[in-house]
Recover the amino acids of this structure.
């Protein structure tokens, strides 16, 4: 009887971000990527969101290794959290591992085994043989994975696009994908992010013309906001800035760290005499300055955000040209729009993606996705890295490209896709979902619910002071409102609430300590109904009994 190969997505399907996929054969598990996502407006106080790794914790003895396709946060951001729960070797390209190593050091995780690989390397890991294939993306060191298992080869594209004129001069290795296509591909897992866009993705080099035009017209300082990880974009900006006689200043903690790593590894080449610190900029005229900063997504506390809000040493003003070289990630549109409006209010000239070609995507559009399907010719097709609509549209594209409908699987988190060379099924599930991290703690849904309630309707404290022996009230009931009503302007409501609680507390005179919880529940229920009737709002109500 042939053993099954199980493919289990723990992240990156039905959502954008926190990408994580498992390959399991017999008693061995291979992990592909370990990413995070950022919280949305429904997650107050949450720092990051990571995959639920309960299944991996339970089966930690089966884990062979973790393979990383590239160094974006949605592919490496959860690694420190994973390494606190289980340890396994990590394989990635030199630049990817440098970024991971920095994250591990920040979290004081010093004994994790990191192995550098290069595109073209083939590594045998127990029952799996992994071929790292050069791809194109918006970060250096991106690779796809061709994983040969005892029942066939699985190709995971990672995030990719087909750029024939990339900045590093090394196009995606189409020949290698075609090689596996001629030998037979059991399953293809392919990036779905840009499936809605027709045609081909533009080459990174195309936006160089826009930068050239912007710098030629700029009369004052030029501030460019982009993703900290986009070394190719930074190199283009630096080349154009230097050509126009400007020095470069990098701002933003993550930006400065990536620049340091990329320079050490040779991915970023900028003459040292053209790099200046922020405190050295006073030596130069405005028309001699170019600042490259974080904040292209409108993130609070990022470099561009603080410059726009006059809380940075480089406050933006009239005469400055600001280039936002990125498109808004879904969910960040309002933040980006807010920063753009603030920049206009400061008198800056703003250039962004809806005005000019200042950004190209790192993800394949429809024609590139069709090409990947055509050259790999997979028996089974599993779209990944996208929201529900992206996965469905990619599945339809796969069917039009000749993959049989019953061999296309559109998974949800935790689905187990079990494959043999003859058939595939998707019936089992494993524990999955999202883990919300706040500081050093994981936050449960109940806590998040309370936070949302507090943010929407506020808090009412009802303080009841009782005699420990008789159970009688021995002080007036006190009510404190936070975020519900302004107490000085709601004196009547507070007075009536106080009377109501006093009446309810007197009903329990003579009660012993075991009945204090009943007092709290009665007060909470009656006060909740009263306040909703008066205000049509439901604040969190916390009755507190004090015994003296």
């Amino acid at each position: 009887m042939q053993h099954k190969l199980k493919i289990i997505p723990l992240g990156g399907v039905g959502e954008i971000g926190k990408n994580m996929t498992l390959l399991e054969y017999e008693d061995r598990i291979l992990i592909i990527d370990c990413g995070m996502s950022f919280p949305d407006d429904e997650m107050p106080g949450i720092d990051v969101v990571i995959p639920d790794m309960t299944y991996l914790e339970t089966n930690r003895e089966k884990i062979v290794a973790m393979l990383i396709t590239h160094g974006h946060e949605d592919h490496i951001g959860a690694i420190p959290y994973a390494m606190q729960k289980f340890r396994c070797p990590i394989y990635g390209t030199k630049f990817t591992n440098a970024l991971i190593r920095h994250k591990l050091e920040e979290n004081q995780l010093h004994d994790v085994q990191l192995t550098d690989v290069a595109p073209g390397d083939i590594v045998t890991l127990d029952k799996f043989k992994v071929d790292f294939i050069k791809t194109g993306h918006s970060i250096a060191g991106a690779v796809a994975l061709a994983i040969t298992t005892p029942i066939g080869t699985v190709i995971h594209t990672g995030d990719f696009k087909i750029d024939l004129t990339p900045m590093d001069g090394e196009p995606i290795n189409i020949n290698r994908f075609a090689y596996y296509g001629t030998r037979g591909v059991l399953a293809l897992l392919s990036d779905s992010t840009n499936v809605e866009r027709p045609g081909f993705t533009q080459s990174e080099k195309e936006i160089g013309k826009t930068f050239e035009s912007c710098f030629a017209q700029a009369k004052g300082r030029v501030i460019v906001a982009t993703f900290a990880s986009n070394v190719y974009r930074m190199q283009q900006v630096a080349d154009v800035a230097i050509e126009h006689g400007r020095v470069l200043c990098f701002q933003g903690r993550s930006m400065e760290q990536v620049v340091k790593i990329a320079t050490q590894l040779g991915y970023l080449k900028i003459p040292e005499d053209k790099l200046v610190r922020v405190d050295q900029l006073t030596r130069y005229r405005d028309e001699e300055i170019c600042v490259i900063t974080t904040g292209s997504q409108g993130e609070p506390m990022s470099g561009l955000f603080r410059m726009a809000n006059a809380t940075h040493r480089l406050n933006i003003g009239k005469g400055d040209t600001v280039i936002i070289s990125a498109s808004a990630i879904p969910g960040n549109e309002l933040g980006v729009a807010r920063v753009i409006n603030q920049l206009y209010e400061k008198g800056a000239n703003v250039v962004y993606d809806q005005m000019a070609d200042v950004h190209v995507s790192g993800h394949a559009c429809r024609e590139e996705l069709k090409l990947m399907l055509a050259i790999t010719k997979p028996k089974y097709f599993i779209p990944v890295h996208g929201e529900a609509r992206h996965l469905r549209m990619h599945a339809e594209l796969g069917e039009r490209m000749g993959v049989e409908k019953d061999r296309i699987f559109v998974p949800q988190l935790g689905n187990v896709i079990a494959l043999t060379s003859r058939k595939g099924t998707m019936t089992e599930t494993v524990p999955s979902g999202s883990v919300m991290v706040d500081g050093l703690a994981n936050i449960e849904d109940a806590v998040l619910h309370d936070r949302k309630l507090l943010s929407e309707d506020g808090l009412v404290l009802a303080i009841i002071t009782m005699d420990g022996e008789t159970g009688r009230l021995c002080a007036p009931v006190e009510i404190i409102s936070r975020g519900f009503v302004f107490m000085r302007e709601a004196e009547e409501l507070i007075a009536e609430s106080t009377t109501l609680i006093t009446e309810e507390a007197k009903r329990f005179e003579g009660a012993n300590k075991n009945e204090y919880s009943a007092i709290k529940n009665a007060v909470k229920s009656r006060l909740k109904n009263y306040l909703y009737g008066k205000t049509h709002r439901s604040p969190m109500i916390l009755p507190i009994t004090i015994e003296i």
Observations:
- The mean pLDDT is 89.
- DSSP finds 15 helices and 25 strands in the chain.
